[in-house]
Amino acid sequence: MNLDPQPLAPALEAAAAAGRTTVWLDLSGVRGKAELMRRCGEALRLPEWVGGNWDALADALRDLSWLPSPSSEPSGGGWLVAVTSWRGYADARPGEWETLGEVLGEAVDFWREQGPGGGPALVVVLADADADADAGPVDGAPPRTPRLKRRRG
Description:
By secondary structure, this protein is α/β, with parallel strands linked by helices. It has helices at 8-17, 33-44, 54-61, 87-92, 94-112; strands at 6-7, 21-26, 79-84, 122-128.
């Protein structure tokens, strides 16, 4: 999973061209785990059984049956989750931010391994919505975090 911030417009154009279902996870104003979980629930339309803990979120991201089905075309399909306005949360809660990166990365890996040809893919983009379309990764972006063996909470 690439955790370098990218401009949003090219990602959305590529997702539409590939027949992906697009989900925006806006983290503006999020400063704690409870609010993060609420935003994830709203954006991803998570079922009620998904509680406010990391393991439940990880399990839900391996299902996604409640989201609109992606295109069944062999050249595309899958889901794009565009995470926007994430810097405040990453700065306020670096440990939680690392865990969210782990959960999202594991979900991306899971969907990549499914079915022949990798099955429908899940792509997660840390979007810099205000960035110029030609801009590259933003200096000072959080690095990709190592996988943790256990999540807490």
